[in-house]
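Retry 2 of 3 after timeout on previous attempt. Resubmitting structure tokens to design endpoint.
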């Protein structure tokens, strides 16, 4: 922080007095340093002001960088050909979520997203299976994608909602219970779980996440904006409204 303020004061001094610091003697430099020290002691608030200016600039740069990343990977994000697409397929807003079933914040965000979709019938919703929290996460995503391959989007969404709320370990017994309760084809799902197709889907999404510099879940993309982390319902509503303005 101190160096930030020093640079700021040097800039002001240079602009106001046209100082050539390279030509200053050792005693002059010492005097200037003491003046700066006294100024900071008398006006400590300038440190926080400078830090806030820097923070805003860095935030703006990050937003612009994320915008460029979304633009560059638009096809892979919104039209990969295999990710679940629900809500209103013709909605004027597209919300994409990178999700891990073992992620506590993903479980929390699920309620907010469902509330948003129920309150706004003009949102297209895309789910990206992004298992990053270990072997259990991978099993859950493979199971969900296998259900999608075997039984389609509607059943996938039902299973997705079950898995995001599930507290039991993702073992064969838990999966069999879901399959039996929904009267699904166990053999088809089990074969799909072991398939190269499922492995390819997960690998594709992981590669996309790397391109987008996504390292955590949940991560959202709403149209052209990348939103990192959990977002409450009121904030989601606000972002949607801003996109439509």
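Retry 2 succeeded. Sequence:
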């Amino acid at each position: 922080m101190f160096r930030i303020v020093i640079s700021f004061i040097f800039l002001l001094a240079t602009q106001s007095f046209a100082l050539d610091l390279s030509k200053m003697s050792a005693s002059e430099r010492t005097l200037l340093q003491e003046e700066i020290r006294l100024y900071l002691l008398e006006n400590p608030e300038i440190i926080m002001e400078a830090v806030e200016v820097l923070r805003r600039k860095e935030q703006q740069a990050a937003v612009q960088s994320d915008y460029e990343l979304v633009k560059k990977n638009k096809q892979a994000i919104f039209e990969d050909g295999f990710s679940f697409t629900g809500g209103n397929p013709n909605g004027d807003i597209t919300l994409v979520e990178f999700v891990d079933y073992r992620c506590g914040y993903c479980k929390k965000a699920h309620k907010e997203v469902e509330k948003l979709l129920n309150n706004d019938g003009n949102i297209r919703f895309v789910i990206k299976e992004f298992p990053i929290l270990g072997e259990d996460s991978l099993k859950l995503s493979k199971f969900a994608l296998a259900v999608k391959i075997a039984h389609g989007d509607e059943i996938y969404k039902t299973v997705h909602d079950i898995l995001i709320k599930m507290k039991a370990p993702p073992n064969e017994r838990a999966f069999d219970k879901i399959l039996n309760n929904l009267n699904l084809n166990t053999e088809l799902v089990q074969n799909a779980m072991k398939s190269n197709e499922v492995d390819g889907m997960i690998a594709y999404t992981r590669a996309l996440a790397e391109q987008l510099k996504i390292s955590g879940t949940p991560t959202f993309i709403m149209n052209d904006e990348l939103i990192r982390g959990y977002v409450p319902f009121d904030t989601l509503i606000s972002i949607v409204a801003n996109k439509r303005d």
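Attempt log closed. The CA atoms of residues 75 and 81 lie 10 Å apart.
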